[in-house]
Amino acid sequence: xxxxxxxxxxxxxxxxxxxxxxxxxxxxxxxxxxxxxxxxxxxxxxxxxxxxxxxxxxxxxxxxxxxxxxxxxxxxxxxxxxxxxxxxxxxxxxxxxxxxxxxxxxxxxxxxxxxxxxxxxxxxxxxxxxxxxxxxxxxxxxxxxxxxxxxxxxxxxxxxxxxxxxxxxxxxxxxxxxxxxxxxxxxxxxxxxxxxxxxxxxxxxxxxxxxxxxxxxxxxxxxxxxxxxxxxxxxxxxxxxxxxxxxxxxxxxxxxxxxxxxxxxxxxxxxxxxxxxxxxxxxxxxxxxxxxxxxxxxxxxxxxxxxxxxxxxxxxxxxxxxxxxxxxxxxxxxxxxxxxxxxxxxxxxxxxxxxxxxxxxxxxxxxxxxxxxxxxxxxxxxxxxxxxxxxxxxxxxxxxxxxxxxxxxxxxxxxxxxxxxxxxxxxxxxxxxxxxxxxxxxxxxxxxxxxxxxxxxxxxxxxxxxxxxxxxxxxxxxxxxxxxxxxxxxxxxxxxxxxxxxxxxxxxxxxxxxxxxxxxxxxxxxxxxxxxxxxxxxxxxxxxxxxxxxxxxxxxxxxxxxxxxxxxxxxxxxxxxxxxxxxxxxxxxxxxxxxxxxxxxxxxxxxxxxxxxxxxxxxxxxxxxxxxxxxxxxxxxxxxxxxxxxxx
Length: 648
Hints:
This protein is mainly α. It has helices at about 1-25, 30-50, 55-70, 75-90, 95-115, 125-130, 130-145, 150-170, 175-185, 190-195, 205-220, 225-240, 250-255, 260-265, 265-280, 285-295, 315-330, 345-355, 390-405, 410-415, 425-445, 450, 460-465, 470-475, 475-495, 505-515, 520-530, 535-545, 565-570, 585-590, 600-610, 610-620; strands at about 555-560, 575-580, 595-600, 620-625, 640-645.
């Protein structure tokens, strides 16, 4: 596993650095990537042939190792989650909102232009957001002409998660038995399990910071400068994934500090690695943002879950997040199990939060994006777009605390030895994550912070798990059974996810809807699947496929942070260009670009023109087709329709 982690860091570094270099050379194309990746491919083939990787002896050794590792129930359930995630990723296109709203479209714009460039768009996230996930995705899209394999970034990262958590926990002096159980339990956290088959960019960053800390601690133990360099690159890659993960770099500094003398012993090569680390970090995006906006992270951009975005009062930021983050982690997976409110209760909850925000106390939280709100995805239950660790892991924490309380008296009379006081570095690595969590809470006011904390969660446990009594708790059969049930529920949620159901959900629930129309509970679940955001997104992609002429090479798109439909317009990838249009675009520009068809989002149109007839008159256009959003009665409001118009 460790060698694979090292290889993943090197591959990630090559793709991210290569993306920026090829952009600078205007060679962000297949030929450029072939030249970039050929040495790596040749090296892998040489090593495989030299080491006879595919030999019968190696096959038997791998099979024996696999059988040994997965002979127990917890690894088997993790393997089941991984299988479900891979099958779902293969069967369904990536329909994650953020991915479709700005991350996938920006890659398509760059690939079409052959370089990174500042995109003419409504949505500034396409320009100012960190580019880590995008540079990993670009070659997959370029060579396959599809987005079906984008889930591999999250899936490969997910496979490394239990091993890295176990390694970090044991290095932070958590007992091996305790570390073993919690490495599997945390890997079944919903933010990791549900995103393993998706194109979301929250959970995969956890691999980089776990690897950075693990390799830095390992470098001190083995006196290995190579591991220290890899840890530096992993920390740099972390900063390039998402700005909200920036505070975690402090953990790498703490872990690498005892091995700092190794850098001085290899000063020139260490300087070169540090330069490479800057290239794969947030620095290039920050410089470009500074060039265009005058600041490394524009604060006025809406929709960014980034450090400094919401300008929170630190005290009230911590207080507010201390309420919001637990709420998001404790919500049940399916809301129809809460009669008599059923899935209406998140709507009522948001109404209560809106009233609270208008009180004198609630005014302190006005800087939050939407204080205390549950996103619309919650109306259908927990999903990859909003999940934190999940209710199951929270219950495991509660059960563990209850078992520790039962051990309280025996521990007082004869405490279990924990190996003495930990070294200062270990002590800091246990406590520092809680301080970094406070920094996050003081600065980030997004209303889906539970998923943004995915890279933080593993580091919040060692300070607690290293305590006396944890080993006794993990030996209890009742505790182990509850843990296995928690993991099994996570596997079930992955298989039954509305985004990627592994059963014929449309057929099943249409039959149920007709057969049991009088059941409120079943009606809720039918709507949950039949009108899920993923099904609507698939319907819109089908709309573009059927209504847009296949030979149309340039299509206009008029939208703003709404339906995230742009990737569907790009299809088939590599054969069509999409041009984003702004409200004040002169008609002459559309003619100069060769645009004959424009896709218009009704809500954006209403905010700027009020009525589509005004837009049609200005641009001398006519409506060719219209897509009506299937409004669910459980939503407070439904997005407006999509219009496909032709310029006359």
